[in-house]
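re: that chain from earlier
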Amino acid sequence: MADYKKIIPFILKKEGGLSRSLSDTASNYPSPCSYNGQKGWHTNKGITYQTFSYLAPKLNFSSDCSTFLKMPEDVWGKIFKNGYWNIWKLDFIKSQVVADYIVSFAWASGNAGAKNQLEKFLSQKGINVNSREEIVLSLDKLAKKNEEKLFNELIEFQKNYYRSLNQPSNLTGWINRVNEFKEYEEKYITKRNALRIILIIAIILIMLVAVYLTYKTFIKKHKS
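^ sequence. v structure.
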């Protein structure tokens, strides 16, 4: 089954610290916190103040400025696991790359945004879904048929989605992140393909041994 811990190093590596960028829609919901004599901080380690303050009472951590500005590892982990990964019930699917793709998309575009886009992706394949659970199950099912093909299609779909937003100042960064995510995830595909090849070879060897033993038994019976 998919493990949420495997994508965390990539996400943390790509996220900076505090941000007060006005080009980010998160700036519409700034924190009241002051840092280095400045206000307007709205994001820390990829977590918006809006999400942080909303989940604080639900996940039992303090929503004060000190916690937001420091963003302790345990608080960040609670928000990621409960606010994103668990929302999609990704513990219960087999494909690690599909699980990582979904949560990465949700992290970047919000759970609602990712849901809308993945519904469109599946509709292009003639699959109509109405819930996050149906999206996850449908993608996991497609991954069982050809995980690598599905993954490459999802990557191109996300790139085209970013291009459709018509935000040239952000596009290069978005595309680069998707490419780096693809490179990060390809090790799982390579590993699974290698295991599949090993399994096929093992089956062939077992069959050859079985044929050989059958042949030996046949010869022995006829000699006797």
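The mean pLDDT is 89.
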